[in-house]
């Protein structure tokens, strides 16, 4: 059983972490490139935020929301 877990540890440290080790070495020379995945996530989150705001504006412009104070049971 110990060999099984050591095999999993070897797989992760020697094989699956190769891209992350390369990014760690790249960090000292090219900070922007080393944080490439972070920038991708920031762009995705920003696009989702813009989409969400546009959807909120669309529903607000259509006046579809019931804004009466008694419209929601948890408010009354």
Explain how this protein is built:
InterPro entries: DUF6341. This is Uracil phosphoribosyltransferase. It comes from Gillisia hiemivivida. The structure is a single chain. This protein has 76 residues and is mainly alpha-helical. The protein has one domain. Helix content is 71%, strand content 0%. It is built from four helices and no strands. It has helices at residues 2-16, 18-26, 31-34, 36-61. The longest helix has 26 residues, at 36-61. It starts with a helix and ends in a 15-residue tail after the last helix. The mean pLDDT is 87.
Q: Topology, pairings included?
A:
Elements lengths: L1 H15 L1 H9 L4 H4 L1 H26 L15
Counted beta strands: 0
Q: Structural class of the helix and strand makeup?
A: mainly alpha
- Broad shape: elongated
Poorly predicted regions: none
Estimate the strand proportion: under 5%
- SSE arrangement, N to C: HHHH
The termini sit apart by 60 Å
């Amino acid at each position: 059983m110990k060999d099984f877990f050591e095999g999993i540890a070897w797989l992760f440290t020697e094989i699956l972490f190769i891209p992350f080790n390369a990014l760690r070495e790249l960090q000292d020379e090219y900070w922007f490139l080393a944080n490439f995945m972070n920038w991708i996530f920031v762009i995705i989150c920003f696009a989702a935020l813009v989409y969400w705001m546009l959807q909120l504006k669309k529903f607000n412009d259509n006046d579809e929301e019931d804004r009466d104070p008694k419209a929601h049971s948890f408010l009354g």
